[in-house]
């Protein structure tokens, strides 16, 4: 792969898609900065995976919805590696499922803090650095929920992912003149700690038969797409959000 000697910052890198992305990019010679908030054990596991393959990796704890913490994280990353070539905005959460009439203001605000404000803060901090270097790639993890709407259980979450898609297009247009490419990925139903936390077995059993490929996706399915967008094979792609959903 053509990412050797490059550096990636992965938010929410302590499990699932983030951890698998770290594994794949680390194996290909990319220096990895693993961001985590509360899951220190998972971040340590990610670091051990990358280093077991001969890769370079550091862990940085930061609540990515907090500007001060984000700025400190990016400073530490650049202090350690000297650069950030790839940003994977992966941190996100559904917080909890709720019908629309039961969503309170606290749940709405927290969902936007975790899924949208965090992406704004981290992107802004990293893009300042990328603009100076006239190069970089930003990959935003969205969701098919942005198009499906999350009706009945997660409109608050789905609407944040719609915002992520809009942010992806806007950033792509603004930063293309600086040599920076911004794209997104919209995962479908992915079996990961995310689903283990937010889905019941009944829901899993109900959804999988509706997927044309008749299986849930894996973190590896998404991480491989991240790897492609991070590579030189994707150097003429910008402003797109690619659905990886098994056809759902």
TrEMBL record:
Pfam families: adh_short_C2. Keywords: Oxidoreductase. GO terms for molecular function: glucose 1-dehydrogenase [NAD(P)+] activity. InterPro entries: NAD(P)-bd_dom_sf, Sc_DH/Rdtase_CS, SDR_fam. The keyword Calcium does not apply. Gene3D superfamilies: NAD(P)-binding Rossmann-like Domain. It is an enzyme of class 1 (oxidoreductase). The keyword Endoplasmic reticulum does not apply. One of its GO terms (biological process) is bile acid metabolic process. Its EC number is 1.1.1.47. NCBIfam families: PRK07231.1 (NF005559). PANTHER family: OXIDOREDUCTASE, SHORT-CHAIN DEHYDROGENASE/REDUCTASE FAMILY (AFU_ORTHOLOGUE AFUA_5G02870), SHORT-CHAIN DEHYDROGENASE_REDUCTASE FAMILY PROTEIN. Belongs to the short-chain dehydrogenases/reductases (SDR) family. Homotetramer. This is Glucose 1-dehydrogenase.
